[in-house]
Write a structure and sequence with these properties.
alpha/beta, 9-stranded parallel beta sheet, two-stranded antiparallel ribbon
Length: 518
C-alpha cells in the first residue's frame, strides 16, 4: 500500500507514534521529489538488497547467486575476473594465475548464461555486470540472456563506467575518447531498446578507494557523468532520457553521518546540474538512483569485529536514502567472502531495513542541526572540486594532463595518517588491543579454492567452445563489429550478434580495437 506523510506506525515496544515522513524533507526540492517518489510505495523505505559477486567458474558463481537469492538478495551485480575485464580469454598467456580469482571467468555468452542459470528471474529486481572497458560486450551478454529467458522486465545494473578506470583502477584498454564512445553506446542502446534500469553506473567508489577520499571522488564521478550526458545529447538524445538510464555508485566508509550526507547531497547536486546545465526542471527530472557498497574499514586481524563495522555502514547508507545497496562480508580482508559471510551480509541489510525502526520514516535525519551543517560542508567541497575539474579542462582532458591522478595523489594516505596520529581510532588497532584473544574474533570463514583447477577447466571449456562453433559465421560477425567501430554505428547490436555466433569476449574486443585503429 502507498503511504502519505500522515501515516503513522506504533510498531515499537513503547507504542510511540512514528510518521512515515516529517516536514524538513520538503525544504529541498530534489529531496522532496525523491521522497515523494519513495513514499508512493510500501514501507519500510529501504534499498534493494544487492550482491556484488563473482568467483571461479560460471557454475560456481551460479550456485552462489542462487544461495544468496534464497536468503533474500534481489539485485545481482556480477564481478568479472581481471582477464575478463581486460579483454583476455582464459587461454591467453597474460590470464595465467588470474582466472576466476578476483571475479568470475566469463568469456562467452554461454558462460554468462550459466552464471544466471539458477537465478529465478521472475523474482529478481535487476541484473548486471561490472565490465567498464567492455561495456558493449557485457551489455550484449545481459540483453541476450534476459531476452532468451523472457525476462526483459528485469532492470539493468550495469557499471560500464570506463573513464574512472584510467586513474582509479588501471584496467582501461582504449583511449579516453574511445571509452566514452563505448559507454555512450551502451546508454543509447538501452534507451532505443527501452531497457529498464541503469545502463551505466557512474562510480565514485573506486576513486575513493584509490585515495581520493569520498568528496573529491563524488566530484570526479559527476564530471564523468556530465561527459557521458554531453556525448549523448550531442547525438540527439534528450537529457532527461539519458539521466534516467544512469545510476551513481557513491561511497563513504568512515563516519555514519557523513555517509548519509553524501547520498542526500548527491541528489541535490545532481539535480542542480540537470537544471543548470541541461535545463530540466526539478519536477521533470528522473529521480536520481544511488547505489552504495557498505564497507567498514575491514580488519584482517579480528574479522568478526567487521560485522558491527559493516552494520553501521549499512545504516549510514540507508539513512541517506540509497536505492541499491550491497554489503561486504566480514572476511573480505582475508579472501573473496565465503558463502556464509556473503549470506550474513544480506541478513545484515535486512535487519537494518526491517528492525529497530531505522527505515519506518523516509529521510529520518532530515532536520538535524548536525546533518544540516555536514550537508553544507559536503556540498561546498564537492562544488569546489567540480569547479576545479572544469577549470582543468573536464574529465577527458584532466585524464590526459594528469590533473585527476595528481589530485588523488595529494589526498592519498589521509586516512592512514589520521589513524597513525590518533586523530581517529580503530578498535583492536592501537586501542583495546587483545592479541592474546585473537581467536575469539576470528570467525570460521572458509572456502579456499583450487584456482589452478579453475584455470585448467576454463581453458578446456573455451578450447571446446572454439572447436565446435562455425568459424566462418564468427568471422563475419567480428567483421561487422570492426566495421561498426570504424564508423559511428552503435557497438552493442553487432556485439550481440558476434556473441550469438560464438565469438569470445577477447575476439570482440580485438575487432573493436581494429575498427578504432582504422
Amino acid at each position: 500500500m502507498a503511504h502519505d506523510s500522515d501515516d503513522i506506525t506504533t510498531a515499537n515496544d513503547g507504542r510511540v507514534p512514528i510518521r512515515a515522513r516529517y516536514a524538513p524533507t520538503a525544504a529541498e526540492p530534489a529531496l522532496k521529489a525523491w521522497s515523494d517518489n519513495r513514499i508512493a510505495g510500501p514501507g519500510p523505505f529501504r534499498p534493494r538488497f544487492m550482491v556484488y559477486s563473482g568467483l571461479g567458474p560460471p557454475a560456481m558463481t551460479a550456485e552462489r547467486l542462487a544461495v544468496l537469492q534464497e536468503v533474500g538478495a534481489e539485485s545481482f551485480l556480477l564481478a568479472a575476473d581481471l582477464p575478463s575485464q581486460l579483454g583476455f580469454d582464459p587461454d591467453h598467456e597474460l590470464s595465467h594465475a588470474q582466472v576466476g580469482r578476483a571475479g568470475v571467468s566469463c568469456a562467452t555468452l554461454d558462460d554468462f548464461a550459466t552464471i544466471c542459470s539458477r537465478l529465478d528471474l521472475s523474482a529478481a529486481d535487476s541484473v548486471g555486470m561490472l565490465q567498464n572497458s567492455l561495456g558493449h560486450v557485457a551489455l550484449g551478454m545481459v540483453h541476450s540472456v534476459l531476452s532468451d529467458r523472457d525476462a526483459r522486465h528485469v532492470k539493468l545494473v550495469m557499471q560500464n563506467d570506463p573513464l574512472k578506470e584510467f586513474t582509479a583502477r588501471g584496467t582501461e584498454i582504449h583511449s579516453p575518447a574511445q571509452a566514452l564512445r563505448i559507454a555512450a553506446d551502451c546508454v543509447a542502446f538501452a534507451i532505443d531498446e527501452d531497457m529498464p534500469g541503469a545502463a551505466l553506473t557512474v562510480c565514485s567508489n573506486h576513486y575513493d578507494v584509490a585515495g581520493a577520499g569520498p568528496l573529491l571522488a563524488v566530484a570526479f564521478a559527476f564530471g564523468n557523468a556530465i561527459a557521458y550526458v554531453d556525448e549523448l545529447v550531442a547525438r540527439g538524445y534528450e537529457p532527461a532520457d539519458v539521466a534516467g538510464k544512469l545510476m551513481f555508485f557513491l561511497n563513504e566508509r568512515s563516519d555514519l553521518f557523513v555517509e548519509a550526507s553524501v547520498f542526500r547531497t548527491a541528489r541535490i547536486l545532481w539535480s542542480e546540474i540537470l537544471l543548470g546545465r541541461y535545463g530540466i526542471p526539478v519536477a521533470e527530472q528522473p529521480v536520481a538512483k544511488l547505489m552504495g557498497y557498505a564497507h567498514g574499514l575491514e580488519s584482517a586481524e579480528e574479522p568478526l569485529v567487521n560485522i558491527p563495522r559493516v552494520t553501521l555502514s549499512v545504516l549510514g547508507s540507508m539513512l541517506g536514502g540509497v536505492d541499491y545497496l550491497c554489503a561486504t562480508g566480514y572476511d573480505e580482508a582475508l579472501r573473496i567472502p565465503s558463502a556464509d559471510a556473503a549470506a550474513l551480509a544480506v541478513r545484515t541489510m535486512q535487519v537494518v531495513a526491517y528492525e529497530h525502526g531505522a527505515l519506518t520514516t523516509i529521510d529520518p535525519l532530515a532536520g538535524s542541526a548536525k546533518l544540516r551543517d555536514v550537508d553544507e560542508q559536503v556540498m561546498r567541497k564537492v562544488r569546489l572540486e567540480l569547479d576545479r575539474l572544469t577549470e582543468a579542462g573536464g574529465p577527458l582532458e584532466a585524464i590526459e594532463n594528469g590533473y585527476i591522478a595528481g589530485r588523488i595523489d595529494e589526498n592519498r594516505g589521509a586516512r592512514q595518517e589520521q589513524l597513525r596520529s590518533g586523530e581517529r581510532l580503530m578498535v583492536g588497532h592501537g586501542v583495546f588491543d587483545a592479541k592474546a584473544r585473537a581467536e575469539w574474533f576470528a570467525g570460521k570463514s572458509s572456502g579456499e579454492i583450487d584456482f589452478a583447477k579453475v584455470e585448467r577447466d576454463a581453458v578446456e571449456r573455451i578450447t571446446e567452445h572454439k572447436r565446435r562453433r562455425d568459424t566462418a559465421l564468427v568471422d563475419r560477425a567480428l567483421k561487422a563489429v570492426e566495421t561498426a567501430a570504424a564508423g559511428t554505428e552503435n557497438l552493442v547490436q553487432p556485439s550481440i550478434e558476434a556473441l550469438r555466433a560464438g565469438a569470445t569476449s577477447a575476439e570482440i574486443v580485438g575487432a573493436t580495437r581494429e575498427g578504432f585503429d582504422r
